[in-house]
Specification:
It is a single chain. It is built from 12 helices and 11 strands. The protein is of the alpha/beta class. It has 2 domains: about 5-155 and about 300-465, 3-Layer(aba) Sandwich (Beta-lactamase), CATH 3.40.710; about 160-295, D-Ala-D-Ala carboxypeptidase C, peptidase S13 (D-tyrosyl-trna(Tyr) Deacylase, Chain: A, 3-Layer(bba) Sandwich), CATH 3.50.80.20. The strands form 2 sheets. Strands 3, 4, 5, 6, 7 and 8 form a 6-stranded mixed beta sheet that branches. It has a 5-stranded antiparallel beta sheet with strand order 2-1-11-10-9, sandwiched between helices. Helix 4 (about 140-155) packs across helix 9 (about 335-345), helix 7 runs antiparallel to helix 8 (about 315-325) and helix 8 (about 315-325) packs across helix 9. The radius of gyration is 23 Å and the shape is elongated. Residues about 1-75 and about 80-90 have low confidence and may be disordered.
Length: about 475
């Protein structure tokens, strides 16, 4: 932050107004969960402003996962409702250039830096440097994955895991639907329903197979096998293939998560008095076999929020494939890339130079521009697209949630919501803040060939904090 900002410098009174509007917008941004976002709101309102790769949070998204069938997720209120645009903007592009330019020149951001700041209510670009240049985005590409899947599937969609029986019920198949959030409690519930269905028919011994045929192409992400940041991408797994009891961050992953899930299911059936004559073996479910039992993931909007908050790579790849399935394409890396690209084209987004080689951002072949990221955020804030709102409400909150929980540069705690991105030599940040007059600003800062994340991240955080009142 600099001391002399011209018209960008705020009076103390304007700062108070900005904080009140910021608190109102945090209130409007999404449902309160476990008091966490209430704490964010209270922290933001209480701040005195005098002077001048990263993963899944335990327990999120699983509360309603065993619903007997799909049901819509509740929608958050419009994010622009508390940020109506005044006729005269308080933020002039020239002022932002004077503030952001020196911060963007920080050597910690390396030689390749692009930026875009946009008024979300009007779509007007307030600041840009190389905004249309496509760069490797790292995990900020998950914003594109989020918007694509939300536009393709709708709020009611849940990812199923099913048990399908042979006509005589002497053989059953565990069918993966692509849900990486399947966990042992839900697998036990699935075993309960399966065992009951078999007992009701007088069956106590079955042959068990498991079906992962929904996904096509290679299971191993291009970054290679044995990476702690992602499991093999398969349609059937438990707890993202983690080999410990963690639910977030890096962890050793199973080389065969589908087989592990099937073997766990065998054990659960055995505990319930159902024996398996052989198996489990990989196979295909009978085309017209009766459905014996099913469990469903949380609705897609909840999965999107979980993915964004914790930069969850396994959920990201699953949601990219759900986009492919919803648009009639193969559930593969290539099919997902085509589907995501098509959905974003339909939203009339600036895709020059863009590529979505995966859904998670682990692939360095991904390319997006700062302008594309800010336009994605603007679309998600648009009252005409309420289905896209979780792409905003899922963004981590500085100092509080997900991958921003430990990042509070220059008093940004509770006031900056943004998706982080980090690969070796790549550091990015894209999200939203409120200006002094209550305008929702979308921003994206991308840096390449950075010397280290330890110096690049604080530099990015200072850029976002400079947009605050």
């Amino acid at each position: 932050m600099v001391a002399d900002r011209g018209t960008w410098q705020l009076t103390a009174g304007a700062a108070v107004v900005g904080l009140a509007l910021a608190a109102a917008a945090v209130t409007a941004a999404g449902p309160w969960d476990n008091g966490q976002r209430k704490a964010e709101r209270e922290h933001a309102a209480a701040l005195g402003r005098t002077g001048g790769a990263d993963h899944q949070v335990a327990g999120r998204g699983s509360g309603a996962a065993d619903a007997p069938g799909p049901a819509p997720a509740p929608s958050a209120p419009g994010v622009l409702a508390a940020a109506s645009a005044p006729k005269t903007p308080s933020v002039a592009p020239a002022d932002l250039a004077g503030v952001l330019g020196p911060l963007l020149d920080d050597p910690g951001l390396g030689p390749l830096r692009t930026a875009s700041v946009v008024d979300a209510a009007t779509g007007r670009q307030l600041y840009g440097r190389g905004a249309g240049t496509a760069m490797t985005p790292a995990s900020t590409v998950k914003i594109a994955t989020a918007v694509a899947v939300l536009s393709a599937t709708g709020p009611a969609h849940r990812i199923p895991t099913k048990v399908v029986a042979a006509p005589d019920f002497r053989a059953i198949t565990l069918v993966g639907g692509g849900d990486p959030t399947l966990d042992m409690p839900r697998l036990r519930a699935l075993a309960d329903r399966t065992a009951k269905g078999l007992r009701d028919r007088g069956v106590t011994t079955v042959r068990l197979s498991y079906d992962t045929s929904l996904y096509k192409g290679p299971e191993i992400h291009p970054i290679g096998a044995g990476n702690d940041n992602i499991a093999p991408v398969t349609a059937l797994m438990i707890n993202e293939g983690r080999l410990d009891d963690s639910t977030e961050g890096g962890a050793r992953r199973s080389p065969d998560p589908a087989g592990d899930a099937a073997r766990a299911f065998v054990g659960l059936l055995s505990e319930r008095g159902v024996n398996t004559a052989a198996g489990p073996i990989r196979g295909r479910a009978p085309a017209k076999g009766p459905a014996l039992a099913a469990t469903h993931s949380a609705p897609v909007p909840a999965l999107v929020e979980r993915m964004l908050t914790n930069s969850d790579n396994d959920i990201a790849e699953a949601l990219a494939r759900q986009t492919a399935l919803a648009t009639g394409r193969p559930a593969s890396f290539a099919g997902a890339e085509a589907a995501v690209t098509d959905r974003l084209k339909r939203l009339k987004l600036p895709l020059a130079g863009a590529r979505f080689a995966d859904g998670s951002g682990l692939n360095r072949a991904d390319k997006v521009s700062a302008a594309l990221l800010t336009t994605l955020l603007v679309r998600a804030a648009d009252p005409a697209h309420p289905e896209l709102r979780p792409a905003l409400t899922g963004l981590p909150v500085a100092g509080f949630t997900g991958t921003l929980s430990g990042r509070t540069a220059a008093g940004s705690g509770g006031l900056v919501r943004a998706k982080t991105g980090t690969l070796r030599g790549v550091d990015t940040l894209a999200g939203t803040v409120l200006s002094a007059d209550g305008r929702l600003l979308a921003f994206a800062f991308l840096a390449g060939d950075t010397p280290s994340a330890a110096v690049a991240r604080p530099a990015l955080d200072r850029l976002a904090a400079a947009l605050l009142p």
